[in-house]
Every structure is written in C-alpha cells, then in structure tokens.
Amino acid sequence: MNPLASPKCARHVLMILAAISSLLFTAGCGSSSSSGPPPLNGGFTNASLTGQYVIAQTGTSLNSQGNPDPFSEAIVFTADGNGNLSITADDGDQDGVPFTPLTSAVSGTYGINRDGTGFLQINYNPTINYAITMIDDSHFYVIEQDVFATTSGFGEKQDTTALTAAPSGNFVFKAHNIDTSSRVGGIAIAAGVISGNEDLLNFGFLASPTRAISTTVAMSTPDSNGRGTFTLNDGTSFNYYVVNSSKFHFVSNAGSLEIGQAEAQTAGSFSPATLAAGTSYVFGSSGDTSNPLGIHSAGVFTTDGNGNIEAGGSTAPGAVDYVQDATINSDLAVSGGTYSLASNGRGTINLTLSGGSISPQIFWIVNGTSGYAYFLANNAAAVEDGTFSLQTPAPTISSQGAFVMDGIDTSFKDRVGVFETTTSGFNWNQAANAFDVGLDEYDPTSTGTNGTDTVTSDGRAAVVVNGITPTLVFYLSAPNTGFMVQEDGATIGGAFAQQASQ
C-alpha cells in the first residue's frame, strides 16, 4: 500500500510542508510523548498493552486544499506487550471522502510509563504519533500528538473470541455527526438485522418524536479486525468494530463524519422507579454549535423514583456547569424538574435550574442497575450528546485517575494524561496538542504540574491546575471518575476515570 493515497496521509504531506517552514516538523515528527515530565505513580509497563485494540476518535487536520477540517476515524492494532505494534485497519472520513483502506499491516512502536501515560507511533510515511493514558489493561484515552493533526478518543481491547459473528441481542446506541446531528436509540439485532427506534436531532430540529430504524443491508460477519458493515433505512452506511459480545463502535463509510457506539441493554422492563428515589446521577456531554467553540456540560441531579427531580440541597445533590461558545454558566443549582421513563428504556429529563437553564435530555437506558444511559440534548442551538450514570455516595478525588479533554480556546486543544491527589497536594501530568487556525500550526507539548482540589458533598470539585487553568470543575460519579468543564473563557471539557491498580 502507498500510504500517500489516503486522504488522511495527503493531509499529512501538507502538514510536513507547513511544519518545515515553521520549524515544528523537527520538534514533532517522529518524536514520542514519552519525553515529557517524569511520570506519576503506578505499576504500568509495556506489558499492560497486550492484544488487539480498537480506537474511535475525532479530530482536526488540514484537508487536501490546506484548510482545517474535522475528521472521524477508527483504528485497529495489535500490541505485543514488548513495545511493537501492527496496525491492521484505519478507516475514517474527511470532507465526504472515506480514507483509503489499508491493504496490508503497518508496523509501529509504543511505550507505557509507570503512571499509564505513553505513546503510540505508527510508521506511515510520515510517522504518526499518539499520546495515550491507560485506565486499565483494556482501556485507554488517546490524542494524536504531532504536527499533522490533533484528535481525542478512546481505545479498548477487543475480545477476539467474539469476532466470529455479528452482535446479537438488545442494544442502546448513540452517534454524533460533527456539526450535523446526534442520535440515540434502542435496537434489537438478530442474524445481523437491526430493528428499533431512535431519536434524531438534526442541528436544532428534533425528528418528532421518535422514528423507526432498521437495516436495509444487514450487518456482515466481522473480519479478523472485528470489522463488518451495515446500512440503515435512512441511507447511512457504516463500518462497525466489535469490542466484545456486549459492545461495538461504528464509523461512517459513506461520506459523513458520523461516529458512534452501542452497548447491550439490560433485560427487563423499565419504569420511573428504575431511577430510584433519592438516587443521584452524574452526566457529561459535549457538542457543536454554529459558533466554532461548541459546548461542554456536566452536572448532577437526584430523582425521587416517581418522575420528579429533587431540589438540590443538603440531602439531594443537584448542580450543573456548562460552557457554550465561551459563555460560562457555573454552579447552577437544580431547583426541581421532571423525568419520564418508558418500558423500552426511553426517557426524558427536564431540569429546572436557579440562575440559568439547560436543554432537556432525551435518553435511553443502557443498564438500569447502574443507571447508565446515553442521551442527546434537545437544544435548538447545538448538536450535543453524552452519558449519565449512578453516583456513589460522596465520591472523592482519593488517588489517581486518567483523563482526556478536547475543545477550543484560541486554538483547537486536546489533552490526555493522569492526575493524583496525595497528602502533599494535587499533581497533574499531561500530553497535549493544539492547532492554531490562523497560523496553520500544531503545537505538541508535555507538561507536569501541580495544583489544588476542593470537593463538596455533592461530588462537585473545584480544581486548580497551575499553568493550565485555575477554574476546572469536576463532577465525580465515583472516586476519581466523572466529567469536567474548564471555566476560564475556553470551551473545553472532558472525562476522567479511576486507574486500576497495577
């Protein structure tokens, strides 16, 4: 295969020229994120990344005309546990042009530090570099960190024993088409045939109220990459990538930027009581607006098990933070609201806030026991979607967590790394990338710093990261796990998860 035949690699050629002229090429191409600050604590090694993995990510790069444009991408690779990679699939789209599929495996290398931070290096022509942070041996956050593109995404280990047949059973899915649409829904899959219902938001216009969804071309049997194809009755067509029998990712193969995931839905009938009385849920979401800055949201709410949202206070956590187009809406108290939940797992949430407002959520329950759900925001000014899940009582920042962030301030920003709290303070280790539209330049960096964190009883934490931001807000769903919003004039946010002990 000639890697320069791919639209993605054509963009990389343009970036080489720009990088040479700005002296960024020498600093970024072929370098790895392992050269940053000393790692924090942990017991991760190269052996922590062993087996076959799939990455789902979105990002920004120059297109074939030299203009910055978003793209969506899925990558499948095998890691040998000793620093070597074999990349066997790399699919995606930019400007309505799908990437040219790999026709043979591409080699690469990787390195994992003790705190789970590390790098992936793919030997395309030119070399492409990623920074990653391991959550555990099966999951990691990732950004592209070189002078060609900046991305953010998620990687997880594939169960290769599940790659012999299309997924089967009841699933809940969500998908995002950058600057275009969001959708969530519940489906049944039998012999590769999909049938079910979805809620679709086309940039501010919700299809009323739900619509039937089905396959016109059934899911094909996956190949050794776990990759198959399917086509829906609305004409959209996808590659899908099996993670295991309970989860798969999918990305458009027909000229759009739509990318999504689906997870097996717990069996049984749902009702408002599924969101039990006095139970709190933490949510996080992000999306696109007509302004390039977009939106990031996070919050916590409490249900009464009977269709009502409890007012936030000493006994009922309830608060919301969001930044839309650089406008900060900080610590808005939940003063009440309502919710509904039908037997098929579809529900709605309307939060009433003091001092502000937030768009209603339309959600589909994935797991009733954990209160885990996918949702979209019925927002006339944005395309926004996310997840929520059960909050453990009084969660804290008590040890070490991995994180990923994306968004825009004066440039497109992506970050990945690890934080820890100790008796001596709060530590932060990140790899980052930024794309300046005006200069057409990328700026990979690595930073080790410290700061402070203050957690309140509802799991909301005010975090200062010196040299990065003085106003980062965490919403904790569990210890060291949740969502974050940066509140300093940028529109940046992300997610974080407790690292497994090694």
Structure commentary:
- By secondary structure, the chain is mainly beta.
- The chain folds into four domains: 3-158, Quinohemoprotein amine dehydrogenase alpha subunit, domain 2 (Lipocalin, Beta Barrel); 167-264, Beta Barrel (Lipocalin); 272-279 and 292-382; 400-498, Lipocalin (Beta Barrel).
- It has helices at residues 7-22, 24-28, and strands at 50-62, 68-80, 84-94, 97-98, 106-112, 117-122, 128-136, 139-144, 149-157, 169-177, 181-190, 193-202, 205-206, 211-217, 227-232, 237-244, 247-252, 259-264, 279-289, 295-303, 319-324, 327-341, 346-354, 361-367, 372-377, 382-390, 400-408, 412-422, 425-436, 441-442, 445-455, 460-465, 469-478, 481-486, 491-498.
- A hairpin with a 5-residue loop joins strand 19 and strand 20.
- The radius of gyration is 21 Å and the shape is globular.
Structural topology:
Layout: H1 7-22, H2 24-28, E1 50-62, E2 68-80, E3 84-94, E4 97-98, E5 106-112, E6 117-122, E7 128-136, E8 139-144, E9 149-157, E10 169-177, E11 181-190, E12 193-202, E13 205-206, E14 211-217, E15 227-232, E16 237-244, E17 247-252, E18 259-264, E19 279-289, E20 295-303, E21 319-324, E22 327-341, E23 346-354, E24 361-367, E25 372-377, E26 382-390, E27 400-408, E28 412-422, E29 425-436, E30 441-442, E31 445-455, E32 460-465, E33 469-478, E34 481-486, E35 491-498
Antiparallel strand pairs: 1-2, 1-9, 2-3, 3-4, 3-5, 5-6, 6-7, 7-8, 8-9, 10-11, 10-18, 11-12, 12-13, 12-14, 14-15, 15-16, 16-17, 17-18, 19-20, 19-26, 20-21, 21-22, 22-23, 23-24, 24-25, 25-26, 27-28, 27-35, 28-29, 29-30, 29-31, 31-32, 32-33, 33-34, 34-35
